[in-house]
Amino acid sequence: xxxxxxxxxxxxxxxxxxxxxxxxxxxxxxxxxxxxxxxxxxxxxxxxxxxxxxxxxxxxxxxxxxxxxxxxxxxxxxxxxxxxxxxxxxxxxxxxxxxxxxxxxxxxxxxxxxxxxxxxxxxxxxxxxxxxxxxxxxxxxxxxxxxxxxxxxxxxxxxxxxxxxxxxxxxxxxxxxxxxxxxxxxxxxxxxxxxxxxxxxxxxxxxxxxxxxxxxxxxxxxxxxxxxxxxxxxx
Amino acid sequence: xxxxxxxxxxxxxxxxxxxxxxxxxxxxxxxxxxxxxxxxxxxxxxxxxxxxxxxxxxxxxxxxxxxxxxxxxxxxxxxxxxxxxxxxxxxxxxxxxxxxxxxxxxxxxxxxxxxxxxxxxxxxxxxxxxxxxxxxxxxxxxxxxxxxxxxxxxxxxxxxxxxxxxxxxxxxxxxxxxxxxxxxxxxxxxxxxxxxxxxxxxxxxxxxxxxxxxxxxxxxxxxxxxxxxxxxxxx
DNA sequence: ACCCGGCGTAAAAGTTTCGTAAAAACCGCA
DNA sequence: TGCGGTTTTTACGAAACTTTTACGCCGGGT
Lengths: 235, 235
Fold this sequence. Notes:
By secondary structure, the first copy, chain A, is of the alpha/beta class.
């Protein structure tokens, strides 16, 4: 339930508009980030990796079309343009530049929310083609949400999968036990380290990994765990 | 998909509007089909299999929402609603019912064309394979809208078919319960998870699938469902 | 050797999610 | 208006998952 929240980035120079949008969207359960300029927006787009972007075309520091192109370049999130300008040329240009939708101010918040749902819905199918991660004889396919061993699908529980997927996101790197607990269970469970031990135990059984000589999930005593990919020998 | 020209179906009862759209779209290289009523439109949607549908909500013979739902269930083509009504509720209802966009008459043809390009662009990734999908002794033909078991056609209710078709669009891939509820029932029903359980139960009976050892519809407890294709054996 | 803290495993108890049946409400259609 | 098929409500037993509880292991420090 921690990664389930949809993240929306608002790029608008008017504080009042941002405030209005933030409150409206937050009440719908979305997580919000804000940027007040084009440059800041582009930076945040690559740092927070939002699921959707609301962009005001009338920014002071950059041309709207430029912002749109930059955003389109560096993150795959759909962009909904929000603008005061009614001009048809403006709309056509924005839509052809990659915008998913174009809403004219003043707009009804309910319509905007519906259009956000449409954009998210349309984008859900077009989710990227990430290549499966291979570790030993284990394949981890984050797109299909499937883990297989020698071609045969393994059945993992939600938490087991979440754990493995988290390690797979940063292959070879150590992930702190604390960090794992916070990300998988929530900040309250920061100190329930035995949850991890039990989870890892079951997981290693399913993956056919020996804790004495791990070839997949390696324990870093006192620190956390790491997923070994390709050739990694204990230092 | 035999031709590479993009096929657009126009559903509108006003002859003049159809004529205007036909000429405008034809000049852009689109191939056009026309329907003057909801019923005719739904029929044509499954016979000509358009790449996109332009739908007027103010049809004389059927409620616009009904047409929208029917279209959404039987062909994957994006629907752009064209309507004289400005009402926000109307827009929200149409968008949540599956419409890809909502354009208010009178509209600029250039904007409409841009929005058509957006819809086609967004939809390009979600191409479904036109060859029937085989899972065990079940054949799922998304083109003919037919599901058969050992050659014999099964009778599925609209929702049952919609569910199965959605799984078949991403074979082997897991689909979240939340996503299924939103796509089949609408965003409001996001939490009615028991709808899915009942639907799946009936569906498995009809398909002859045992939930304990599923060979077709596999449950991922806490996550969602997936259609098993090829060789997958339950542990 | 001894104690001790971090780790791994196993089996239980507890909680959530799933599957199924049957009844009630709904809806297009004659 | 009543009818047949479909969807939604309601209810409960079964299964899956998580958390608790308990115990054995290994290595380092004293």
